[in-house]
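Summary of Year 1 activities. Much of the first year was spent building the evaluation harness for sequence design. The harness presents a backbone, in tokenized form, and records the residue chosen at every position. We chose the following record to illustrate the format because it has been used consistently in internal testing since the harness was completed.
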């Protein structure tokens, strides 16, 4: 490939039938949408070569949540060293890279600017194309990095701190929104309830660990919208119900360590039951048999267990990304770019004089573009 191409960030979305790249490409993936700095190299012939991830959890924990300005500054510190580490470990050079994939949105504006600026700078220096990728598409396609990997079409459950959505996926770039949360996302509800129980940020994993010590069935919390007749979610009221239960126990002098664990168990059971019920309803509504689960909450062991049991019972199957790729990461961004280039390699030759970020960007918009 010629190095005479102008550096660019291009967002190209169409529908592709095959999840493989019929020619050899080495793609550098960069992810900086929120509080994790992710870099990876994906080889279309040999698969993922290596990926590096720096989490800002410890830094943000003191504030009980992500501080956007601090997140942006930390991405600036971490990104170049991570790129150098990935290149060194892969035993290649920057000049061997054929394309650079970077998260263009959605996410924190300042954080996105760090990734796209570095990507554009590398594109300028190396004469390589830069391809803008939708962050949620990276999550949605990440289960295809593991074995066995699902074939299209499938239903995707995107479940994280900022998103809870069900999508019908016919192919790369062909997404139809089936349902989404009307208030708090599942991961957000986990974090808020964990804080209510005195657990440190991020609360989701801590609450799940505490729930393992809980007595199943001692408390019963609502299953919001489980019988709503649609595929939408609502978790804000569940958090409020947990708060009311906690206050009642405190008033009765019964809010001890075991009560905390029992509330955590009841809370997790409620969210998991709703996610499983809605996912099965989506599969049946679309007449599909494959469910892809992605996003940070997709690492929850209880959710995986219940989904596996439910889908197996109904003759369906659930697929997940590797545990280390459930959070934000550069591997999913590089892989999404490889999928996009599988049957439309034109971005490797086209150029664009400018680039932009998209802090607010609905996933279904890329199907209509």
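For this record, the design step produced the sequence shown next.
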């Amino acid at each position: 490939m010629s190095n005479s191409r102008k550096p660019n960030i291009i967002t190209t979305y169409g529908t592709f039938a095959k999840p493989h790249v019929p020619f050899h490409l080495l793609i550098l993936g960069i992810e900086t949408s929120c509080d994790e700095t992710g870099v990876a190299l994906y080889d279309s012939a040999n698969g993922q070569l290596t990926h590096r991830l720096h989490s800002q959890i410890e830094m943000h924990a003191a504030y009980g949540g992500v501080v956007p300005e601090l997140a942006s500054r930390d991405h600036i510190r971490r990104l170049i060293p991570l790129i150098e580490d990935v290149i060194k470990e892969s035993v290649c050079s920057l000049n061997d890279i054929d394309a650079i994939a970077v998260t263009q949105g959605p996410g924190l504006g300042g954080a996105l600017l760090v990734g796209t600026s570095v990507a554009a700078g590398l594109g300028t220096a190396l004469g390589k194309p830069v391809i803008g990728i939708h962050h949620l598409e990276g999550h949605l396609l990440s289960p295809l990095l593991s074995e066995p990997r699902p074939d299209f079409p499938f239903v995707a459950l995107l479940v994280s701190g900022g998103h809870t959505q069900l999508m019908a996926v016919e192919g790369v770039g062909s997404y139809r929104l089936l349902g989404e949360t009307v208030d708090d996302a599942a991961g957000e509800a986990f974090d808020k309830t964990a804080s209510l129980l005195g657990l440190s940020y991020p609360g989701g994993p801590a609450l799940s660990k505490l729930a393992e010590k809980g007595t199943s069935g001692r408390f019963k919390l609502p299953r919001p919208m489980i019988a709503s007749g649609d595929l939408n979610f609502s978790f804000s009221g569940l958090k409020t119900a947990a708060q009311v239960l906690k206050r009642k126990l405190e008033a009765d002098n019964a809010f001890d360590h075991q009560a905390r664990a029992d509330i955590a168990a009841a809370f997790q059971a409620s969210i998991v039951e709703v996610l499983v019920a809605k996912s099965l309803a989506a599969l049946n509504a679309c007449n599909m048999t494959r469910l892809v689960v992605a996003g940070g909450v997709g690492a929850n062991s209880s959710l995986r267990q219940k989904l596996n049991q439910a889908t197996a019972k109904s003759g369906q199957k659930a697929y997940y990304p590797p545990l280390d790729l459930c959070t934000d990461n550069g591997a999913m961004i590089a892989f999404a770019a490889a999928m996009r280039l599988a049957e439309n390699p034109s971005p490797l030759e086209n150029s664009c004089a400018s680039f932009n970020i998209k802090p607010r960007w609905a996933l279904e918009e890329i199907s209509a573009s």
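The chain has two domains: 8-142+326-368, 151-320. Quantitative recovery figures across the full test set are reported in Table 2.
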